[in-house]
Amino acid sequence: MSDYREFYRNRPVMITGGLGFIGSNLARRLAGLGADVLIVDALIPDSGANLFNIAGLENRVRLNVADIRQGGTMDYLVRDREVIFNLAGQVSHIDSMRDPGTDLDINCRSQLTLLEACRRHNPSTKVVYASTRQIYGRPDRLPVDEEHLVRPTDINGINKAAGEQYHLVYNNVFGVRACSLRLTNVYGPRQLIKHNRQGFIGWFIRLALDDQEIHIFGDGSQIRDFVYVDDAADALLRAGATDTINGHPLNVGGDEHISHRDLVELLIATAGAGHVRYVEWPEEKKKIDIGSFYSDSTRFQEATGWRPTVQLAEGLARTLAFYREHREHYVEDGETPT
Amino acid sequence: MSDYREFYRNRPVMITGGLGFIGSNLARRLAGLGADVLIVDALIPDSGANLFNIAGLENRVRLNVADIRQGGTMDYLVRDREVIFNLAGQVSHIDSMRDPGTDLDINCRSQLTLLEACRRHNPSTKVVYASTRQIYGRPDRLPVDEEHLVRPTDINGINKAAGEQYHLVYNNVFGVRACSLRLTNVYGPRQLIKHNRQGFIGWFIRLALDDQEIHIFGDGSQIRDFVYVDDAADALLRAGATDTINGHPLNVGGDEHISHRDLVELLIATAGAGHVRYVEWPEEKKKIDIGSFYSDSTRFQEATGWRPTVQLAEGLARTLAFYREHREHYVEDGETPT
Fold first, then answer.
1. Which of A42, A239, A319, B5 has the most C-beta neighbours closer than 10 Å?
2. In A, which residues are within 8 Å of B248 by CB distance?
3. B155: which residues sit within 8 A by CB, 6+ positions away?
């Protein structure tokens, strides 16, 4: 797999959700490798899509604003794309519990529309789906490998799991090559930090940036693993170039396991700002809490040679530096965290 | 649990998909127990819905024709129902692969609509969801218990799995009591036998009735278990009256494990009609074949005292007798199986 970078030179690829956090970092990487990059994004308000995420890249990627729920549009756009990184999705657990129908549309109907477009109009393409560790729910054992039951604790997790399974079935039955990466908590530059409905890590970073109080529920002993976004992009690239993993879901997790308490301490120390406060678990959060989680990525590592390369201390430092330089593109003027 | 029958006397219940195969048999049983039965069914053409399924029952149940995808309608209908047997669904694997979007609508959107109606308008109800052993896909080991991975081989299985998980999340997070029964191959009177897109057992029965050739793929050594529809209805009744299983998926399978070959032999002997022919696996069927399957229902049996009571030989005899008496209501005039 040392040549997976070469694989992308002049290769026509598509990134759905390419204006979002992971998608835009992946687009930068692909542009650097000389790929022919088509970004498809619906620019849904309050999602992670942000035009500034591709600033400076405008002449090296093509942007097509479109919603992947639109079958006719996707039928056309997929035609000549040899690798499709399918990152479009609704990622807010909270929104999914308020409005499950919209979550279903974005995380299930849209995936079927994209896969049908590939089946009918470009069956030789390869699709890499960005799944999430969230679909496992509360673990029975640690670390969590791919033999662990999938038992989501919220609607978003259920729909993401269905989206993943569609890809595997289209691979197995219709021959549209596809695999799915179950990404653990990804963090880094270009993540949405303007509200707190898309996971806690971006929001903690925002609070530290603004020298605000960071609330930890309970004693903060629950453990997580994290992947810096450049490492996540590298995992996606390797997956796109590796056919032995087609038809499989694979964990992509970090090799540092850290408690919320230690994470926040490290973040505050790195930022030189922010304060911690321990608070009682709110009832409705407690119900969907999953305790400790970290994943075993052995299967993916052995298949592709991937390893996380950016340690948490370094990753947080880079992330804070990025937002300090580009704050105005990620936080609205005068806005304060609540 | 000896009093679960008494539990239903005068109790307001709803059966979605109540004109279908399992739903109508359940409706008969509930009417016999003195329940206040509301059947909700959309009478979707080519589904199992059949008005003859409730013949003779018209004065003892109420029928409301409606589609459970209609939120406003369901908001009203669920209001006073104390137990909801949620059996509405698209059950054809084949149709789901031809038209995945419709399968998504019927098996996912509709379940969310029903559950949202309960959450908003009748949060104290109890919902029993009819899931299927099909969601397991190809087993890693036999018998299959609930710790086995869920790994569907087709779109219908994926959407049914999501439908199940919605129920468990609504139980765990919103307090709408719910459980899910993963039913194995159910057979018996009132099953759709006019086309072959809803599972093989009904179709084999139809072919035997018509003294036609029954095709077995390969050598017919793959094993299945079966549940007679009266036993399936009894399982649903017990589930509706048992709160200790809320939040859980539970297998409901048969205790006879029989190869396709032996099943067809038994069927032909019982019918005194039909012939068997062994044929090569069609390529597209082979791709989604799951090999042998039978399930372990210990968890459900211990929680509710349920046991299958009708053995296969007896069940097939009753089923054949039913269709011979009522053939014209299940097979169109002059139609021959193909």
1. A239
2. none
3. A112, A166, A169, B96, B97, B100, B103, B104
Nearest-angstrom CA–CA distance, B150 and A248: 13
Mean pLDDT computed over every residue of chain B? 95
Which residue in this structure is represented by tokens 């990525």? A297
In angstroms, the separation between the Cα of residue B158 and the nearest Cα of chain A is 6
**Residue B2: per-residue pLDDT:** 56
Residue B99 is part of a domain; what is its CATH number? 3.40.50.720
* CA proximity to A220, closest of A305, A299, A277, A304: A277
| Beta strands in B205-314, from DSSP E residues, in sequence order | 213-217, 223-228, 249-252, 257-259, 275-279
| A334 bridge partner residues | none
The answer to whether A213 and A292 are in contact (CB under 8 A) is no
Confidence of residue A179 (pLDDT cuts 50, 70, 90): very high
Q: CA–CA separation, B107 vs B112, rounded Å?
A: 9
CA distance A273 to A177: 47
Structure tokens at A222: 């629950």
Measured between beta carbons, which residues in chain A are less than 8 angstroms from residue B113? 101
SS3 A259: strand
Q: Taking a C-beta distance cutoff of 8 angstroms, is the pair A200, A222 a contact?
A: no
* Neighbouring C-beta atoms of residue A284, cutoff 10 Å: 11
For B43, B107, B166, the CA distances from B66, given in Å and listed in that order, are 8, 15, 21
Query: Is residue A176 within 8 Å of A118, Cβ to Cβ?
Result: yes
Q: Do B153 and A169 count as a contact with CB atoms less than 8 A apart?
A: yes
**Cα(B207)–Cα(B35) distance, rounded to whole angstroms?**
36
Domain range for residue A92?
A: 4-190+227-254+295-309
> What residue type is B107 in one-letter code?
N
> Is A155 within the bounds of a domain?
yes
Measured between alpha carbons, how far is A286 from B192 in angstroms, rounded to an integer?
A: 45
Residues A9 and A36 sit within 8 Å (Cβ to Cβ): no
pLDDT at B338: 61
Put simply, the answer to whether A149 touches B153 (Cβ < 8 Å) is no
Residue A56, Cα to own-chain centre: how many angstroms?
Answer: 22
| Rg, chain A, Cα only | 19
Please count the helices (runs of H) and the strands (runs of E) in chain B.
Answer: 13, 12
Residue B177 lies in a domain: yes
Location of structure tokens 């970073």: A205
pTM for the whole thing? 0.95
Q: How far is CA A168 from CA A123, A131, A141, A174, B153, in A?
A: 14, 12, 25, 10, 9
Q: pLDDT tens digits for B272-318?
A: 999 999 999 998 788 778 999 999 999 999 999 999 999 999 999 99
- Tell me, yes or no, whether A261 lies in a domain: no
- When scoring A75, A102, A158, A248 by the number of chain B Cβ atoms within 10 A, the one with the most, hence best to mutate, is A158
Gyration radius (Cα) of chain B, Å: 19
Instruction: Describe chain A by its helix, strand, coil percentages, rounded to 5.
Output: 45, 20, 40
Chain B residue closest in CA terms to A147: B149
Check: CB of residue A240 under 8 Å from CB of residue A13: yes
- Specify the 3-state DSSP secondary structure of B77: helix
Start-to-end CA span in chain B (Å): 46
Q: State the complex-level ipTM.
A: 0.93
Using the Cβ of A150 and the Cβ atoms of chain B, whether some distance falls under 8 Å is answered with yes
Q: How far is A160 from A179, CA to CA, in rounded Å? A: 14
pLDDT at B133 > cutoff 80: yes
* Residue B145 and residue B299 in contact, taking contact as beta carbons nearer than 8 Å: yes
In a domain, B55, yes or no: yes
